[in-house]
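Encoded backbone
================
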Amino acid sequence: MKTKIYNKGQMSFFPLYLTTIGNRCKQSRIKRINGYERHQIFLVSSGSGVLNIQGQQYIINKNDLFYIAAHIPHEYYGVDDFFETTYISFCGDGFEKIQQYYELGVFGVYKNKNSGSFKSTVENLHEIVDTIHETSTLCALTFSAVISYFDEACKKGYSPIEKVYNYLEENYSKMITLEDVLTVYPYSKTKLCCDFKKKYKITIFEMLTRIRLSHARNMINSNPHIKLKSIALSCGFNDISYFCKMYKRLYNCSPKSEINLSENFGDT
């Protein structure tokens, strides 16, 4: 867990302030009879657990999302040895309007959502949070993470083809075949390819490449000293030359040049 502390004068300008962030933290039993002083949003990274809140009990499993507003009594704990959470806690007057916009209660449990985007956002933020010296930058990143979380959590549902996109987003680091994708799409391979291209205007594997390259670019921006091989392998590319070729085709520059650019900005 990483913690941010602000002086009193910093807390009056921005809508949200990050207070703690954790990435894949082994979760001990937590029981707060008076709640926690900050708002919290969670992703279950692995294992299974239980959330007790407002007289109700919820089983929470890997990839489930749950949220708890400040000062709401609660308890959560793992039911196996693998229970880990990825989370952000935050404060700020701006959250009241966010609650109104998304029609949030004092807590929420969200299943069958695409947790990949929030997972990637928190991983990147967790890695660079100690290097961010401007409060404005940190607050902007926190606001973006919270909004993306509730955009996903409060989405009513997905069409079958949207579930395919979610599958690509969550599994981009792995080798994926059409047979793998058909595990989340209840129709034929032909219909899968046709429906996907009709909705997104590109093929499944073109989309998968774009997703991989987007994550690669985020890795470069968050860690200017990272190695090309590490980026490629982490984002599902076994061939570094192919990775560089596709990166340049999409972004009109090589990944190496962007790494060098990030390093130069980091030295200023």
